[in-house]
Amino acid sequence: MPAPYSEDLRDRLTAAVAEGSSARAAAVRFRVSESTAIRWAQRWRAEGEARARPMGGDRRSRLTGHREGVLTLVAHQPDLTLAEIRAELAARHGIAVGQTTIWRFFERHRITLNKKSARCRAGAI
To answer: What is the pTM of this model?
Structure first.
C-alpha cells in the first residue's frame, strides 16, 4: 500500500488555496492530481486541516469474544472444515464471519486442523 503524501505538501497546497489559488491550479503547481487537490481543499475548508487520515482497517478479530465457544466446538468435533465451523458458529452463536476470519483465529492460537488422508486412516501404508 502506498504511503500518504507528506504533511508539508498538504500544508503548502492548502496555503495556496487559502491565498486565492484554485484547487486545480494548486494541483498543477504542486504536481498532484486534481482530484487529490480538490479533496484536500474540501477537507481543509470543512475541518480546518488536510492531514492524512489513518490507513488500514480494524484489525481486531470478531471471534475474540467467542474464543471459548470456538475452541469448545473444535475440541468436540476436530474433523470440521472451516466452512462447517462457520456454519456451526452462525447456527449456534449467531456469529456471521468469513472463513478467512476463522483461519486467522486458528493461526493466532496455533491450532491446526490438518486432516489425515483416507489412506492413513484406513491403516494402509
So the answer is: 0.50
Instruction: Tell which residue, 33, 34, 42, has the closest CA to residue 14.
Output: 42
Which whole-number Å values give the CA distances from 4 to 56, 108, 117, in the listed order?
12, 30, 48
Cell of 11: 500544508
Burial class (CB in 10 A: 0-12, 13-18, 19+), 27: buried
Note the pLDDT of residue 123.
Answer: 59
**Would you list the domain boundaries of the chain?**
7-47, 64-114
- CA 100 to chain CA centroid, Å, is 12
Nearest CA among 8, 9, 56 for reference residue 36: 9
45-71 in b/e form (b: 16+ CB < 10 A) is: eeeeebeeeeeeeeeeeebeebeeebe
